[in-house]
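Class, discuss our next protein.
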Amino acid sequence: MATITINVIPPQPDLRCLAVDANGGVDLYFSFPAGVIDTNIKYDIYHSKQIYGPYSLLDSIFYPDTTFYHSGSDANTSKSYYYLLGSVTCGTNIGGGSDSLLYSDTLSTILMHSTAVNMGVTADLNWNPTHNPLIPSSSTDYDVHYINADNIDAILSVQPDTFAQMDGDRCDYIPQFYVEIPDISGCVSKSSISSVNLLDTLSPVTPIIEDISVDVNGKSVVSWSVSADSDFYIVYIQDNNGAWITLDTVLFGTNSYQFVNSNATINSENFTVRAIDSCGNTRVRSEIHNSIYLVQLVDECDHSVQLNWNDYINWSGGTHHFNVFINEIDENGVVISDVITVTNATEYLLDGLTSSSQYEIYVEAYNFDASFVAVSNLLDFNISLAAKPKFHYIEYVTVNPDNGFIELNCYVDNQGVIDHYDIYRSKIVNGVEVGLDLIDNVTFNGTSSVHYIDNEASTSNYSYLYKTYPVDTCGITLNVPPVDDPAYANDISYAQSILLEVEVNKDYSSFPGLESDYTNTITFNEYDKWLGDVSKYELFRSINNEPFVMLPIKTWDMDNNSNQELVFIDKVTEFGETNGKFCYYIKATEGNNTPYGSVPEGSLSNIVCISQTPNIFVPNTFTPNGDEHNEVFRPIAYFVSEVGYSFSIFNRNGSEIFSTNEPSKGWDGTYKGSNVQNDNYVYHLQYINSDGELTHKTDAFNLVR
């Protein structure tokens, strides 16, 4: 029998895809050619960690299986290499000697590498192909996958290259990357997953402020250029102390900001802007830019307005020029417009204005090529003639009792436009007004009264007459009536202070009842001039350095007797045991017949203090014997002041046995509690006489019990 040998050629093993899982295991995908029937085809699977081996047999698989899973491949840390060896046996002795052997292509797992570059901002990715070149059935494009911080898997790109880069989209996180490449058979090769820590450390570009302009509402508006890579803009303002205050945060895409609490109509405001990304990366703030604050100083007197404004700062190339825009709206509503160009200055004098027109003025600043324009606040004004006050009245002139100064108070029309009030003063000498001199002025502060203190008046020697005149903002002195009433149209308010004078012990020898009295004669001038006239004068007195008694010692009723003489004789004999000091002042009270009501303060005169003539008699004998007569030895004094007073007793040996500084005290004839003997003694007396001089008197006297 003849032996026939049949050589069976097995199908070529066709390894198509390698997919690495999260644990480093690998799924192998392969296929059989079309038309293969159930035969004894066996594929041996070989593996190595090095492309050139050595390779070890992992397992054998038989038709029709087309997948195999290799656990423990560590393909997530290093590449693994695989190929298939196909064989066919005849009969049932599968696994016996092979009739023939065929090898598949050797494929590599895809190992993904990722590193952080560009200061940790960018992930740099690279990977190997499964075969070089790719097997014919493989796609030529890789799907690059990105797993973000929210574990969302997205395709970053589809590309033939085996490298890629991606900038991080979070501030500090660890994204994951892998690639997939499909095969025409339907399987997909998948790389290992690689992760990298990405940081957003790139700062956005410092923005450039284009202009700070004041809008129609008087609010500063900050505009700036787009800053690449920013997510937000922070707007700052500088406060009055130079500190930078955060105003607000503006989202990227908005390049201007209106400061709603702006005071751009009353001062210039400084701003800066900072760009910042969502990770907090930022650079320095922009250059400081400022709003333009335009102010006017209107001179109604010469119908002009001085315009002044601050410079606009920190444009690159500086500020080239300013345009002053002027709109004049006349009384018929006709608008006349003009534009004035100003260079190298921040002021302009606009003259020839008319009082019947309204003016609107603003300034625009331009950079060197006019690409940036900043607008100032808007001025809106007219130069209507200043309102004249309708009344001006001196409420009172009074002497301050504490310092002797004259205080003057005026009731004024605060609706009038006034710069200041001129104060004029005349001295009254022997009832005659001497001179009328401008002594001072008081700035108008918008209140309804003007108060002035004259600290140079000699109120103890003279009465003074005062007149005050309002002076308007053009320097014109105005004659204004005391009351807004035609009946007072030709009147001017004035006021005269009260001078009180006192004469001590005037000669009244020819006046019965006064010839033997000590007297103080008080005279004073009338207060002049209240609208309500003087209702009464009251005379107040203080004795012996005591406070003034609040009940007057004399009242002149001027309502019922306006012609009475303003004189009073104060008989003070009964006060002889005092120190002789008497003080007086007059208070004048206004009547109620006045448009403004009676002045509560009234008017006070100067205070006059006098000392009565001291008179002292010293006896030459005294008898301290207990009979209640002549028991104490002391000077009999009238109006002797304790100031400078002393009274001392000396014995025959010159030793002082008694002394006092009080005029009311005397010696009772004892020394150290024991009666002294009858003898001659000497006293020494010291006091201030009527001329104010210190007087000494020494003499002997007898003590007889």
Q: What stands out?
A: The longest strand covers residues 432-443. Residues 112-199 form a domain with the Immunoglobulin-like fold (CATH 2.60.40.10). Residues 178 and 586 are 110 Å apart (CA to CA). Confidence is low (pLDDT under 50) at residues 91-99.
